[in-house]
Amino acid sequence: MKKIKYISYYIIPTLYLSFCFAEGFLYDYGKEKVVNYEKYGKILNNGTTYYKYVITDRQGLAEAVGEGIYPNTESVKKDPLYQKLFSEGKLKKSHWECVDTDDPIRDFYVWATAPEEPGVKQFFIAKALENAGEILHAIKAYYAVVVHYPGSPCWSADKSFVWYVAPEAISRIEKLCEKHPELELKLVDAYVLIENGNDTDLKNDIVKVNIGKFVKFTKEDRVKKINLDELKIVETRGKGKVQLVKFSNGHWQLRVNGKPFIVKGVSYVCSPVGQSPHNGTLENWQFMDKNNNGRIDGPYDSWVDKNKNNKKDKDEVVVGDFQLLKDMGCNAIRVYHNASTNEYVRGKEFNKKLLRELYEKYGIYVIMGDFLGAYTIGSGADWNLGTDYTDKEQLENMKKVVKDMVLENKDEPYVLMWLLGNENMNSSNPNAVNYTNTNANKYPEEYVKFVNEVAKMIHELDPNHPVAVANLDTVNLSYYAKYAPEVDIFGCNAYRGKDGFGGLWKEVKLKYDRPVLITEYGCDAYWEGKGEDEEKQAEYHRGCWKDIVYNSAGNNGVGNSIGGIIFEWMDEWWKSGAAGWDGAPYEHDTQAQHRAPFPDGWAHEEWFGIVSMGNGNDSPFLRQLRKTYFVYKEELWKE
Questions:
Q1: 3-class DSSP state of 317
Q2: pLDDT digits over 167-218, tens only?
Q3: Contact 515, 244 (CB under 8 A)
Q4: Fewer CB atoms < 10 Å away: N or C end of the chain?
C-alpha cells in the first residue's frame, strides 16, 4: 500500500499555513489540506436562502480534495487498500451496517462507493474518516457537505423523522478543531439554518447557508479568555437577585447577587423501589420518612455502599443526598410540583423548611418547575384527551397553579428561577403522538403564546427571578422567536451524544437570541447485551459538560450557555418493564425502550442515575456512586 508523506501549503484569505503530516491509510490525500473553493468555482449568495456553489474547474477541485470527497469519486477505486479489501470480499456490506463500527477503514471504503443521496453519503464518509483518525481529511469531507449539499436530508429507517446533515457537519468540524489544537484551525461564521426542518414535509423547508471560512487559530488563541469586564453590557433581563446580562460581543451570563453563576444542576429524585406514578403510589420525596426518625429519607438518611455488597458495613455511615450533592459541586436541583388545585395536596407540594435547609446548609438553589399541562398535571384535563391549549378553562387552571407556586415561594432564598413545561411540544409534526399527553404539537402557536402569557404573569408577580422554558431540544424554536418575548432563558432537554450539543448553541443564537440552559442531559449506565457500563456513561457526561463550559460566556464557543442539569440523580425503577410504561417497579429492568445517541445506541430508562440503588433491598437509603459522580466531584465541578 502506498504511503503518502508531504508538506502542503495552502491559502486561507491572505493567510499562509503549512503542515507536515504523518503516514496514514489513504492513497490520495489531495493537493490542498484546506481547500480554497473560490479557486475552483463561484460562491453565490452566501449567507442567504439562495446560496449556491458552482464548480468551474471540476478536475482541479477533485485533485485538491482527494479521495472520498466530492467531486473526487474515482481515486478511491485506485487505492491499493480498497482494491485489496474489495478482492477479499470484505466490502460486501450494506453501507448502513457500516456506521460507527470498530472497522472505520472498511466503513470509509463502503460509504465512498455507496449508492446513497450524495450529501448523506459525504457526511458518513467524513464520519468514517474521523473514526479512523484521519482528522484533517475528515474536516475536508465534512466541509464538502456544507459547500455542496447544505440541504441534504437524512431519513430515519421508518421514515418517521428527518434530520439535516450539514448543521451536524459544521458541528463536527468545530469539535475536531477544538480537540486537535495542533491543526491551528478554526471555522468561523459558518451556519446552516433549516426552517420547518423538524417535520417530515421537505417542501416547506427553507435552508439558509453561510459556509464561513477557516482561520488560523493557535494554541495561544485557544487558551485566551475573553475579558468580559472590558465589554459593555447591552441588555439586562431581570431586576433583582438573579439577572441575565448580555455583553457587546453577544455572550450571555447568569448572575446571582451580582456574581457570575453557571448552573451545575441535578434533576433530583428519590423514587423508592416498588413505587410508581402510574398506579398512584409514588410519594413526594420532600415529605418521605419511612424509618420514622423525624428526618426526610433521601436528603438526610441515605448512605454510600462503598464496596457495593448491598449491605451496610460498620464504616458506611449515614451521609444524606444533600451532602453528597454538595460534595460533587452541585449548586442547583430541578424540582417539579404536582400543580394540584386541591388545597390539601397543594400544601404538600413543597417542603419549604427542607428546601431552606438545602440552600442555607448546603448552598444549593432550587429551579422551581411547573409542568404547564404536561401529563395533564395542572390543567384539569381528562387523561384520555390530554391537555388542550385552546381550552380557556384549562388555561386558567394552569395559570392558577403557577400563580400559587410563585406567590408561595418567590420570597424564599432557595429560588433560582422558574421553569415552565417539560417537552410539552416534542415534535414539529402536528400529527405526531405527543408522549406528554398534550396537543402542543398540533397547536404550537397557541402553546407558545400561552407560555409567554404565563411568563409575563410571573414577571409581574416576581421580578427577582428569571423564567425559563423546558423544550425538547430545539423543536419549533422559531415559534419562541415569534411569540415568546417574555421568556428569559431557552431551556431544552437535549441528548445529542458524547461530544455535547452540536449546533444547538448556534441555532438558538441565530434564531432566538437567549441564554441557553440544558435542562436535561445525560445517558444511561447500561450497555445492551453486556450489562452495566459506568465508563461509557462517565465519558458521555464529560463530553457534554465540557461543551457546556466551552460555549459559556468568556470562552471560545458561542457564548450563550449558562449551565446544565444532569438527568438524573438516582435510577428510577418504575420507568419500563414488561408492562411497558405501566412499569414493573420492583424490577431494575434492562430492557431497552428506544433508539438513542447513547454509547450502545439504545436508551434504558431505568439506568440514567449517576447513583444506583444497588439490588434495591435497602431502598430508598442505599446509594452506590457510579464513576460519573466522581468525574463531577473530582474533575468537572471541582471548583
A1: coil
A2: 999 999 999 999 999 999 999 999 999 887 766 777 878 899 999 999 999 8
A3: yes
A4: C
Which is it for strands 602-603 and 594-595: parallel, antiparallel or unpaired?
antiparallel
Distance CA 367, CA 383 (A): 27
Domains of the chain: which residue ranges?
7-223, 263-636
Of 442, 519, 436, nearest in space to 479 by CA: 442
Q: In sequence order, what are the residues at sequence separation of 6 or more whose Cβ sits closer than 8 angstroms to the Cβ of residue 507?
A: 167, 191, 193, 474, 477
H/E run at residue 348: none
- Residue 44's Cβ-count burial label (10 Å; 0-12, 13-18, 19+) is exposed
Q: Is the pLDDT of residue 249 over 60?
A: yes
Maximum C-alpha span of the chain? 80
Distance CA 568, CA 371 (A): 17
Task: Select the CATH number that applies to the domain covering 263-636 from these four: 3.20.20.80, 1.20.140.20, 3.60.15.10, 3.30.70.260.
Answer: 3.20.20.80
Rounded CA Rg of the chain: 26
Q: Is the pLDDT of residue 559 over 50?
A: yes
Helix (H) or strand (E) holding 520: strand 516-521
The rounded distance, in Å, linking the Cα atoms of 491 and 93 is: 41
Per-residue H/E/C for 378-410: CCCCCCCCCECCCCHHHHHHHHHHHHHHHHHHC
H-assigned helices in 149-253: 165-179, 219-223
C-alpha cell belonging to residue 120: 448523506
Q: 377 CB contacts (<8 Å, ≥6 apart)?
A: 338, 339, 371
Q: How confident is the model at residue 8 (pLDDT cuts 50, 70, 90)?
A: very low
For 213-224, how does the pLDDT look when each residue is reduced to its tens digit (9 = 90+)? 999 998 888 878
8 A C-beta contact, residue 369 and residue 470: yes
State the average pLDDT over residues 372-383: 95
Q: Are 87 and 244 in contact (CB under 8 A)?
A: no
β-strands 516-521, 526-527 pairing: unpaired
Pairing of strands 259-260, 252-256: antiparallel
Query: Do residues 420 and 457 lie in contact, with contact meaning Cβ atoms separated by under 8 Å?
Result: no
Q: What is the pLDDT of residues 69-106, one digit of tens each?
A: 999 988 999 999 999 999 999 999 999 999 999 999 99
List all residues 6 or more positions away from 158 whose beta carbon is below 8 Å from its beta carbon.
Answer: none
Which of these, 210, 122, 167, 246, lies nearest to 474 by C-alpha position? Answer: 167
Spell 429-459 as b/e; 16+ CB within 10 A means b.
Answer: beebebebbbbbbbbbebbbbbbbbbbebbb
Q: Which amino acid is at 33?
A: K
Residue 438 grid coordinates = 398534550
Is residue 311 within 8 Å of residue 624, measured between CB atoms?
A: no
